[in-house]
Here is the input.
Amino acid sequence: MNMLKKAVVAVAAVGMLALPGLQAAMADTIKIGAILAETGPSFLGVPEANTLRMLTEELNAKGGVNGNKIELIIKDSGGNPEKAISFAKQLIEEEKVFAIIGPSTSGETMKIKNIAEQAETLLVSCAAAAVIVNPVAKWVFKTPQMDSDAVKKIYMEMNKMNISKIAVVVGNTGFGKAGKGQLLKIAPEFGIDVLISEVYDKKATDLSAVVAKLMANKDIQAVVNWSIVPAQSIIIKNIRQAGWDVPIFQSHGFGNIKFVQAAGAAAEGVIFPAGRLLVADVLPDNNVQKPVLVKYKSDYEGKFKEEASTFGGHAYDAFMILTKAIGEVGPDKAKVRDAIENMQGFVGTGGVFNFSPENHNGLGLDAFDMMTVKDGKFTLYAK
Here is the structure.
């Protein structure tokens, strides 16, 4: 063999040896961005970020989605809407992400909703406000149950308890503002009269003055405390410290045991609507959600040594819905959007999702059960 032929053979041999690595390098990587409040005045972002990292690790260990690995890029917004705007632009324009999961809060989501819409980038929010998906925006979905449905569940329970005159207190966040709007709007449908409504600062450490103002109205039969920040636990403590034995209702933003721990004994008997993740272990075996809930709860708690929360569940649902759609139609943004919009019967932690062109949340009243706190733990509420 002359020198030229030897050189050609050698180059070919090197090429053959390098081919598997080359093919691996050519495999598509799907970038998924996430904007989450890992720091800041809430207990939302940490379980969400933990969940996304855990699911990405598990999925990539199995080869990704049809051979395509997921690259997860998490941005910590600290719950700040302005940071969320900056991160959304960065993820879309610089990172060229396929989709964004989050933000954690309703206020942040509303700030970046139009950014995602204009860029035709999928946004699967982990926030609850109905205004996120009502009216429907083509590229925007969300996984938490509707705040409007949470209000209805609370008022239905009040009707059973013959409660008709209430006080409403909310945190000064997007979630609080949206919740207050729903509480006031829906009240007449259930014969509820909101006698007083107050807003408190999300960073407050003492809300006894607000409690005193509520107590001055002797006709109040119950208090609804609508918040996602630790200050919601302060209201509970201050109410009980004042010796006021009024029923306290919370939103589904109470679904992290850390809020109970912060309120201590004062949290006993608090009533709130939530998804079934918090009571997964006591669900009947024929409940369609139970296998999903028990596995997620076991995986999360085993890995992170803390109790699973509904907030981590929202991130679980967002990731699983998104990757299921990619697996079905491939990494094509428009096709994935269509697949999510037409997804039916998806069993998640928040409920059984049935999306449609008119419904980009996919959940209804049946996604909620009423919960309470007993002996420092979440349990099903039974009057």
